[in-house]
Inverse folding.
């Protein structure tokens, strides 16, 4: 699999040997992320493990998050999906931010490819302590931090807590709908789920939590 | 481990051989639940697999839920915990039902034994399709049905959906706090979590979901 370029499209190799070099970098990345977590792994150590210059890793992948996404074969870059959802000009004036976030998450997960990768990551995090640490750190950096940035206006001190409450509801939705497949929530329409859950996300974003 | 009696205390064997018979019943129960799910397994088939009369299984365990709890070594009977939480006379007039349900779930999960068994069940459900079906059916019968009964006054048609939304938030809380251990939610006090999440559960119980 080739990594997405900065323009979002898959890049094609620009010289022979690119594909082997990329594979070596991704193999090294998987080893480093597993061994040291998302926070502890460094581009420098990943480059060294692949026998290439760190500048080449930056050139190919641009950021640690993009490198992680490529190594884990995530079909999307989470922080970019969130940034798009938060800035989406198609969101009408009557659509609250919480409702729009739930709709964006469901739009992703209703795709079988995205859901498969996501459930695979979650499954490995449930069964391996190393994978738990890695996924938890990645979710914090790639999802909680951008969501917390939105809630900062309400109350800077509670922003990380608010973001983690949103994660608890959105990940709980994914677990009950796609993994456990609990009857009423697995069978509900996307629209019914958005209407039911969106306002609860709005409360976590800006409501009174005391 | 001996199963809890109807009075909630562990029973002691009343004749020699009880313990071997109980073990045979629990072994047979684990096989039947795994093979046929929670709904599909019958007391009759479990008794037959253990070479005993169905009346003896009823005598020892009283109900399929209690037999399941004993076979899975759950330290509590979920529907009884929920019934107690819903009827708890210590709940003051200012404590909403949603808040009280979150407090009851957290009180259980803060116990290492309960949390360990619960995460073990969830882990097996993430990694085995048979275990997924079994746990989903059990959650439906033992948790969603009693919760839905409470919300029936609001809107009978939406009661199962409301109960499953509550499950999505409460299970998502367990996953992010105890399994992924996401920083802000893993480090929050129980009181802060109750205050933050309780009102969202109240909305799922009785609020407008359209």
């Amino acid at each position: 699999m080739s990594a997405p370029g900065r323009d979002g499209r898959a890049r094609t190799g620009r010289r022979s040997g690119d594909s082997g070099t990329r594979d070596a970098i991704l193999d090294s990345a998987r080893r480093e992320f597993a061994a040291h977590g998302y926070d502890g792994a460094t581009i420098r150590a990943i480059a060294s493990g692949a026998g290439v210059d760190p500048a080449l890793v930056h050139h190919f992948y641009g950021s640690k998050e993009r490198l992680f996404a490529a190594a884990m074969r995530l079909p999307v870059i989470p922080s970019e999906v969130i940034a798009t959802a938060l800035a989406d000009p198609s969101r009408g004036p009557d659509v609250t931010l919480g409702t729009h976030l739930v709709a964006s998450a469901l739009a992703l997960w209703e795709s079988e490819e995205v859901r498969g990768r996501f459930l695979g990551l979650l499954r490995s995090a449930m069964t391996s302590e190393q994978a738990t640490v890695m996924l938890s750190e990645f979710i914090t950096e790639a999802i909680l931090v951008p969501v917390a940035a939105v809630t900062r206006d309400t109350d800077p001190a509670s922003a990380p807590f608010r973001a983690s409450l949103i994660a608890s509801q959105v990940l709980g939705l994914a677990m009950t709908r796609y993994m456990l497949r609990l009857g009423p929530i697995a069978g509900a329409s996307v629209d019914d789920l958005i209407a039911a859950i969106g306002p609860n996300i709005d409360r976590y974003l800006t409501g009174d939590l005391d």
